[in-house]
Amino acid sequence: MKILHTADWHLGKNIEGHSRMDEQECFLNDFSEIVEREDIDLVIIAGDVYDSYNPPARAEKMFYEALKRLSNHGERLILVIAGNHDNPQRLEAPGPLARDHGILMAGVPKTIIEPGTYGNHEVVDSGAGFVEIQINGEKAMILLLPYPSEKRLNEVLYDEVTDDSGNQKSYSDRIFSYFNQLESHFREDTINLVTSHIFAMGSEEGGSERSIQLGGTYIVEGRCFPDMAHYIALGHIHKPQIIPGTKGRGRYAGSPIHFNRREITYGKKCMVVEIVVENGKTLKNNIREIDLKIYKPIEVWQCESVEAAILKCQENAERSCWVYLEIETDHYIREDEIKKMKEYKADILEVIPRLTTILTEEKLEKLTEQSFGDVFKEFYRKERGTEADDEVLELLLSLVLQEEKS
Ligand SMILES: [Mn+2]
Question: Which of 32, 124, 221, 339 is the most exposed place for a label (fewest CB within 10 A)?
Answer without folding.
Answer: 339
